[in-house]
Structure formats: structure tokens, C-alpha cells
Write a structure and sequence with these properties.
CATH architecture of one domain: 3-Layer(aba) Sandwich
Strand content: under 5%
Structural class: mainly alpha
Pfam families: DUF2828, DUF7788
Largest sheet: 6 strands, mixed
InterPro entries: DUF2828 (IPR058580), DUF7788 (IPR056690), UCP015417_vWA (IPR011205)
Radius of gyration: 31 Å
Shape: elongated
Distance between the termini: 37 Å
Strand order of the largest sheet: 3-2-1-4-5-6
Length: about 600
């Protein structure tokens, strides 16, 4: 792409230098960290001695969109000290937007800024993962925050900085761009490479060879020269320097720095961004020219589709409506083809939905297929001995589960209760328990799957349940039925939309005391001790059932608590958690869920460098 010196004309002023802010100081405002990358000794000790016992697990389970930035940094510091590679994977798990993470954009930026301060080479060496877990535009956004501070997006816009001497411009690029976004030496990459420049160079090769379908979105995400974002980050200058270094053109050798910068920025615009953006057929280009009838909707990214949908309907309703219909039909066809090529196990809620269909002729095939899927699932779990001799307490009250999208969580609650009742042996088989203050076991009626599911769905439930009554009922039933310790209930599963403290009824004995305070209750560990004593009294001291309370509507970030006083709590629902639940006999260890979340191939490419 070299050009003769005589062809270069200065048509405008060179870009001014930019003062570089201190993202680190902003990121650490109010920090308890004392030195290096390790949080204060007291903070680390506290985090490492928490209920989880594993700092990485604490970071995975406790960080969500509502986590204060400083708390996130403290959790990350403790996790990194414990296991740097796992902590790195969990950082990118925060960003995962393609069913490979939490999709927490701000949390990821907070963690990445912490890495920039304490582990910049590791951050640089994993820049290619930005696009794999999130979007290419995450990179310039992170650079913006590195320069202007972690809270740059939360403060009022400041006046544009005044032009500065040339040496400050060089310092800004070298300090904040090259060292941070220049790829550090890693396996198979002996020299530093610039992420955006490398991608643009590759896209240009595809442009020249006519392989337009292989062109990525880097040109779209790259800020335009002289845009406000570019003026804030100097990113275009850094990219232009990488694409057109002085040694690439003899005319650059003795050229003044300002003129060289101006020319390579202009080449970046004309020779790189303009042709690549034209190849991408970006909707913004057609929209700015009012060429709505020529806009190729099939090239519009999902995020742009969401933003501009109302404009497409306003200016080109006919074509846009037809596109949506064709797109929906093609997606359904592709989904059907993929399902035939690689059939996936049906989801429990889908089976329950089909089993519960009315007896219309149009539903016969779906109900028959669902019945076969149900029998296959039950036989598979029974063959493994999973969920055998367990008890289900189902909260089908008109609460949060009913109000979930398409009553999905209610179907899961009903389905799990039905599944557990089928997998148990007498006298526990074919019975479920209503979520109520009294012991309320119900025997499922003889009839079709639909009748049994409706029976569970219509059970009379209350706002709270009495766990002590459930234990007493189990003992009574076991004694009267002559149950041996081997056939005792192993686990009591409670499916609800509440956490344990809110779901439990206060002990009746306390209410009888004159000094009873209705705002307090006997701690569960005291109740559990009494339960264990009662089981010991009747000869079942070694088989006290474990309690697993699954708050299906709780926040996923709450994760799982360690088993305490016989109780394990699961929070939130995901298909992966359901898979682990069924594969692990209903008891999912916290580490299992964390390791499963970062087991994908994309996580194995991440590397710790410093």
C-alpha cells in the first residue's frame, strides 16, 4: 500500500495528543488492597474462610450484576491468589453472551480493569478471547475506560482536552495502547501483534480475494478517525501505526511525526475502513443515505436489528415484514435439520408440556412421543439408582412459579415432583407432598400422565411449610410400614420460589411461650438436632434424610451453599443445572457447577502469563 511522497497532501491538522487518565486509581477507589495484586490480608482471609471455602467458588457464586465493583475486585484478588487460571476463566465467564457465561458486561469490565492493573500481560495475551466470549467492541470500550478511568461512563462528559506536545502523544500510545493491547509473547506468537490491526489486515486479504463472507466485524467496531471515541482513546492512530509502519513506505522515513500520523490515519479510513464497511453492507450506511429499499436485512447483526427495528418498520415495512417471515421459516428449518442430525435429550419442561396436552386428535402424536420420552428418562434414572427413595415437596401455590414465563418453572416443579414419585419404592412411591404447614402427603391417582400432573398442579399449598412435620410424618410412616434403614427416605427435595428462611414455619412450641417474639424463631440447627435425636430414638440414627431446597426463581449467582445442618440450597434455574441435578442424584456440589460452567473449549484457550 505504499505511495510516493509527492502524492501526500496535508488536508487538515494532525490529531492532538491526549492526556492519559489513571484507570487503576479509579478502579481501586476505596480499595482495601495494600500492595501488588493481592487484596488486603484481612479481606483475603475473610473471603477464603467463607461458607464456600474456595475463593474461586465464591467469585463464581457471589458475583452478579448487583455486586459492588470493590467487592468484585476483592473476590477476584482472593480467587486469583488461590488459582489464577480458574480465576481467569471465571472472568471471561462473566462476559459470556453465547450461552457460555453470565453476560455481565459491567462486571467483566471491572474485572478486566483489575487485570490491567495487576496482570496486564495476561490481559493482553487473551485479547482474542474478547470476541469469543463477548464482542470485538469490548476491546475499544475497555481501552476507553483504561484511559479515562473505570467510572468514565458514570460521570458527566468533560470538556475535550487541549492539544499537548508530541512526546505526550507517544507516551499515551506506548503506555496505554501498546503495553496493554499489544499482544504479549505467548506460545506460537514470538512478537507483539495488535489485535484490531491483525484482524483488519486479515479482513483486507479476504476483501482482495473476494471472500466477503469471511470478513469479520472489526471494521464496524473500530471507531472512525476523528470521532469522539477516537479522540478519547487515540485508537485509530495506534491501529494506523501498526498497519502502516514507517518502514512500510520509503516516503515515511524522513517525514515529520505529525504529518506521518495524519497520513496513516487517512489511509486507515480510505484504504481499510471504507471498503471493509462497504463489504459488510452495514445498515447505517444505507440509513444515512435514505436507501431503505436497498438495505440488506440479512446482513444486519442481532443487536443492530433490535435497535433499528422500529425504523425498519417505519421506512420499509413491506420488505422488512417479509424478511422476518422468511427468517423465521429458515430458522425453524435449520433447527429441525440440526435436531435430526444431532438429536438432543428433551428438556423436562417440554416433556411435561406435551404430556399435559388435552386429548385432541391433533395432540395425539406429541403426547405419544412425550410418553415415550418420559418412560426413557425414568428407566435411565432408575437403572442408575438416581433419586431412589426420595421425597418431593412441591410449592404449586399461586406465586412466583406460576408467574414465570409460560409457567416454565411451575412445569419444572410439577415434573420433578412426579419424577421423584415414580423413582421411589414403597411406601414412598407415587406420592408427593404439598407445600404446607402440616404434613400433607398425597397419593397420586391411578390414571393418565395428564391426570397425575394436573393432580400435582392443583394440590392445596400455603405460603410456608413445616419441615419438622415432614420429618415426623416420615418417621411415623417408616415405623408403621416396617421400613428398614436401607429403604429410608434419603433426601427431601423442596421445589419452591423461596429461600429456606422465608419458606419455613416457626416451631409451634415457641409460640406457646409467654415471652415468644413473633419476629424471631429457633435457629434451624436446634431443630435439626432434635430431628436427629428423634430418628436415633426409633433406630434410624444413621439415615437422617438430607434436605435439598431448590429456589427455582432465585438468582443464579446465589449458586449453592455448602451443606449445613442437613440443608443444601440451590438457587435459580438453568438447563445445565437441571442436567447436573439429574446426573448427580439430585445433589449438586458447588465445585461441580463451577467447573461445568468453564469446561467449554473456548475456556481451554485462555492462558495465565504474569
Amino acid at each position: 500500500m505504499s505511495s510516493a511522497a509527492g502524492d501526500h497532501l496535508i488536508l487538515g491538522p494532525p490529531v492532538a495528543g491526549l492526556p492519559v487518565g489513571n484507570a487503576s486509581s479509579s478502579a481501586e477507589a476505596g480499595s482495601t488492597s495494600t500492595a501488588g495484586h493481592v487484596a488486603g490480608a484481612e479481606v483475603v482471609e475473610h473471603l477464603q474462610s467463607g461458607a464456600f471455602g474456595n475463593p474461586c467458588l465464591s467469585f463464581f457464586a457471589l458475583v452478579d450484576r448487583d455486586t459492588p465493583p470493590q467487592h468484585l475486585r476483592d473476590l477476584l484478588a482472593a480467587a486469583w491468589e488461590h488459582d489464577a487460571l480458574t480465576a481467569l476463566k471465571l472472568v471471561f465467564n462473566l462476559r459470556g453472551v453465547r450461552d457460555n457465561g453470565k453476560g455481565d458486561r459491567e462486571g467483566f469490565y471491572t474485572a478486566a480493569l483489575w487485570m490491567h492493573q495487576y496482570h496486564p500481560r495476561t490481559l493482553a495475551g487473551n485479547l482474542s478471547a474478547f470476541a469469543e466470549f463477548g464482542y470485538i467492541k469490548d476491546f475499544p470500550e475497555l481501552l476507553y475506560r483504561i484511559i479515562h478511568g473505570a467510572d468514565a461512563r458514570k460521570v458527566q462528559p468533560q470538556p475535550q482536552p487541549q492539544p499537548q506536545p508530541d512526546h505526550l502523544l507517544a507516551d499515551a500510545v506506548n503506555l496505554e495502547t501498546e503495553d496493554v493491547v499489544g499482544e504479549a509473547p505467548v506460545k506460537g506468537s514470538p512478537s507483539k501483534k495488535f489485535l484490531c490491526g491483525q484482524n483488519l489486515r486479515s479482513d483486507l486479504e479476504h476483501h482482495k480475494s473476494g471472500k466477503l463472507s469471511k470478513i469479520g466485524l472489526t471494521a464496524k467496531c473500530c471507531p472512525s478517525p476523528d470521532s469522539s471515541f477516537d479522540q478519547s482513546t487515540l485508537l485509530c492512530e495506534a491501529i494506523a501505526r501498526g498497519l502502516f509502519p514507517r518502514e512500510s513506505d520509503a516516503s515515511y522515513a524522513n517525514m515529520k511525526e505529525k504529518h506521518y500520523i495524519f497520513l496513516v490515519r487517512r489511509r486507515l479510513r480510505r484504504e481499510v475502513l471504507v471498503p471493509l464497511r462497504k463489504d459488510l453492507e452495514l445498515p447505517e450506511i444505507y440509513m444515512s443515505k435514505n436507501q431503505w429499499s436497498d438495505l440488506p436485512y440479512e446482513r444486519v447483526a442481532s443487536e443492530a436489528m433490535r435497535i433499528y427495528e422500529h425504523l425498519f418498520k417505519k421506512h420499509d415495512e413491506g420488505r422488512f415484514t417479509a424478511f422476518l417471515k422468511d427468517h423465521k421459516d429458515s430458522r425453524e428449518a435449520a433447527k429441525h435439520k440440526a435436531k435430526k442430525a444431532a438429536p438432543q435429550p428433551p428438556l423436562l419442561q417440554d416433556i411435561i408440556t406435551s404430556l399435559g396436552l388435552a386429548s385432541h386428535a391433533s395432540n395425539i402424536k406429541r403426547r405419544e412421543d412425550a410418553a415415550q420420552q418420559w418412560r426413557t428418562l425414568v428407566d435411565h434414572l432408575r437403572g442408575k439408582g438416581s433419586l431412589c427413595n426420595c421425597m418431593a415437596v412441591c410449592d404449586v401455590n399461586k406465586g412466583g412459579l406460576v408467574k414465570s414465563e409460560g409457567q416454565k418453572l411451575l412445569k419444572i416443579c410439577v415434573g420433578l415432583g412426579f419424577l421423584i414419585s415414580e423413582l421411589s419404592s414403597p411406601p414412598w412411591t407415587n406420592s408427593v407432598h404439598a407445600f404446607a404447614s402440616n404434613y400433607f402427603p398425597l397419593v397420586l391417582p391411578v390414571g393418565s400422565y395428564r391426570e397425575k400432573l394436573n393432580f400435582i398442579r392443583q394440590m392445596p399449598c400455603e405460603e410456608r411449610f413445616n419441615l419438622k412435620k415432614v420429618f415426623e410424618g416420615i418417621i411415623t410412616r417408616a415405623v408403621t410400614s416396617g421400613v428398614t434403614p436401607d429403604n429410608m427416605v434419603k433426601t427431601i427435595f423442596i421445589f419452591t420460589d423461596k429461600f429456606f428462611e422465608k419458606a419455613s414455619v416457626r416451631p409451634v412450641e415457641l409460640i406457646e411461650h409467654e415471652d415468644f417474639n413473633p419476629l424471631s424463631s429457633r435457629p434451624w440447627h436446634e431443630e435439626y438436632r432434635r430431628v436427629c435425636e428423634e430418628f436415633k430414638r426409633v433406630g434410624f440414627q444413621d439415615v437422617v434424610p438430607q434436605i435439598v431446597l431448590w429456589n427455582l426463581k432465585g438468582p443464579r449467582s446465589a449458586g449453592l451453599t455448602a451443606t449445613k445442618d442437613g440443608v443444601m440450597t440451590l438457587s435459580g434455574y438453568s438447563d445445565e443445572l437441571m442436567r447436573l441435578f439429574l446426573e448427580n442424584n439430585g445433589v449438586v456440589e458447588p465445585e461441580d457447577e463451577m467447573l461445568d460452567a468453564i469446561a467449554g473449549d473456548e475456556y481451554q484457550k485462555l492462558q495465565v502469563i504474569d
